[in-house]
């Protein structure tokens, strides 16, 4: 009853604000008719990208929705995405602000969700130079190779201990990506401390679930009251405090005198900047900037990398022809009885790269690119898009559009053989990392980590489905959140390959 009364009180203000936010001048995109107060919210399911895809199939590749008082443009075509991310990149490269993103980014002091401006430029410059540059990518090679070798040893040990043992790949790969990200970005080796891998997995999943959650405050004036009554505010804050305690643990370790570091990580670099005197008119790095960047790197790097590896192995398990072809090429190119795989070996296996690109097409790390906000009136595909309108690019829909892809629902890596299309932001039918000024700065690091991990798993082990399970039994249901996660864990039987 209390929530219903809140809706009634908010109705007049909501209608007035929406009219002001979205003036009716010019030709607006088509879209479904909404209801009073809530607009089109009732037409959206838990998986937003699938709901948006269904609506676009009926109304077209550029659709106008109203989520409460917030106007949202959903773009589901290559041509529309190119206009947003290239033609009008400068006019659309800021971010809308939501309650959860503001909280988890320490009032937008990060890179991913920060509004476009001088602060964002400075933070991106720092992280690119100190973490994501080509020089840093090469210098962190030993971390990725050591963790890949440790991954193989862990799985080999379980094979030796039990015959036909099964592996829950979500747990294994989560530990793998978390260990790499924490070492190269935070200078922390969690194999040697009491913060166990299971806690990291739970922390990332809970944080991402709350970061992408729906809040009435984002779509209705005074909606914060409903969030308080429903318990939403409390749930999000509990997850946030857990994440903050984790960052405190990492930062405190760095502040200890004599704390050994095997390299200059982003936390060390930013702590030096925080403690260094600066001129009054120059940019000043704060602890909130540090924790905001840590959030971006930790949540996107760990979850995105693990999910991509899981979906790749899932598709390989569903397509034995591709699995066989890939493993035969890997073992032929790398030779028999190799003791250790290095990143130089990645350049020898061309088919693995085709498999990766096809995985990105069907299972992009971000099915919806982080939302943009128009900073001026623009035109997209002939439609007027007013200032202060949220834009969502549906990469999930674009990657499955039969206009661009033959047999779009099929996993066929060969489609990229001799194809100019790649995932680096220049081809707008494939945008797993975005494009333009807001493209993901950690793309190269993430790709290298994922490819090296997969190369080790596919060289040293043969994989099969558990006894009694068929290809048709593999559950492909997707979980909700910013990233497309596989809802049901992938469990496979591993055996050490015998030459």
Automatic annotation (TrEMBL):
PROSITE patterns recorded: CYTOCHROME_P450 (PS00086)
Signal peptide boundaries: 1-18
GO molecular function: heme binding; iron ion binding; monooxygenase activity; oxidoreductase activity, acting on paired donors, with incorporation or reduction of molecular oxygen
Cofactor annotation: heme
Listed CDD domains: CYP71-like
Binding-site list for heme: 440
Protein name as it appears in the record: Uncharacterized protein
Organism field: Arabidopsis thaliana
């Amino acid at each position: 009853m209390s929530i219903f009364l809140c809706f009634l009180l908010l109705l007049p203000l909501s209608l007035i604000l929406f009219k002001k936010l979205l003036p009716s001048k010019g030709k607006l995109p088509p879209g479904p008719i909404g209801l009073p107060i809530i607009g089109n919210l009732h037409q959206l399911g838990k998986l937003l990208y699938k709901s948006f895809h269904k609506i676009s199939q009926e109304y077209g590749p550029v659709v106008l929705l109203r989520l409460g008082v917030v106007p949202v443009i959903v773009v589901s075509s290559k041509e529309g995405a190119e206009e947003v991310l290239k033609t009008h990149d400068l006019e659309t490269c800021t971010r809308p602000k939501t309650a959860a993103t503001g909280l988890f980014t320490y009032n937008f002091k990060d890179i991913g969700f920060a509004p476009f401006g001088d602060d964002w430029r400075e933070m991106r410059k720092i992280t690119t130079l100190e973490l994501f540059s080509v020089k840093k990518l090469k210098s962190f090679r030993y971390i990725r190779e050591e963790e890949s070798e440790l991954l193989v040893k862990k799985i080999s040990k379980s094979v030796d201990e039990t015959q036909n043992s099964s592996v829950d790949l979500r747990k294994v790969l989560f530990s793998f990506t978390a260990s790499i990200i924490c070492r190269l970005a935070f200078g922390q080796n969690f194999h040697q401390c009491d913060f166990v891998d299971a806690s990291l997995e739970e922390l990332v999943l809970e944080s991402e679930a709350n970061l992408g959650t729906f809040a009435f405050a984002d779509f209705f004036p005074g909606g914060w009251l409903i969030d308080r009554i429903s318990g939403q505010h409390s749930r999000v804050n509990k997850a946030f405090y857990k994440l903050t305690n984790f960052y405190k643990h990492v930062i405190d370790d760095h502040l200890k005198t004599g704390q050994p570091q095997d390299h200059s990580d982003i936390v060390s670099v930013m702590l030096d900047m925080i403690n260094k005197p600066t001129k009054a008119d120059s940019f000043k790095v704060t602890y909130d900037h540090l924790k905001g960047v840590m959030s971006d790197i930790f949540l996107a790097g760990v979850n995105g990398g693990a999910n991509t590896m899981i979906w790749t192995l899932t598709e390989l398990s569903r397509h034995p022809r591709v699995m066989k072809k890939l493993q035969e090429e890997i073992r032929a190119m790398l030779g028999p009885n190799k003791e250790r795989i290095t990143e130089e070996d990645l350049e020898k296996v061309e088919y693995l790269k085709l498999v990766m690109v096809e995985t990105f097409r069907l299972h992009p790390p971000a099915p919806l690119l982080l939302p943009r906000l128009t900073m001026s009136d623009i035109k997209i595909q002939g439609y007027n898009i007013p200032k202060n309108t949220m834009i969502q690019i549906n990469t999930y829909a674009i990657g499955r559009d039969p206009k661009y892809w033959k047999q779009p629902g099929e996993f066929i890596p060969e489609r990229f053989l001799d194809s100019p299309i790649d995932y680096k932001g220049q081809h707008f039918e494939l945008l797993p990392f975005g494009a333009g000024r807001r493209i993901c700065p950690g793309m190269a690091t993430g790709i290298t980590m994922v490819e090296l991990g997969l190369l080790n798993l596919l060289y040293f082990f043969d994989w099969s489905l558990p006894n009694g399970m068929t290809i048709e039994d593999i559950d492909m249901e997707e979980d909700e959140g910013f990233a497309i996660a596989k809802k049901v864990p992938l469990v496979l039987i591993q055996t050490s390959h015998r030459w």
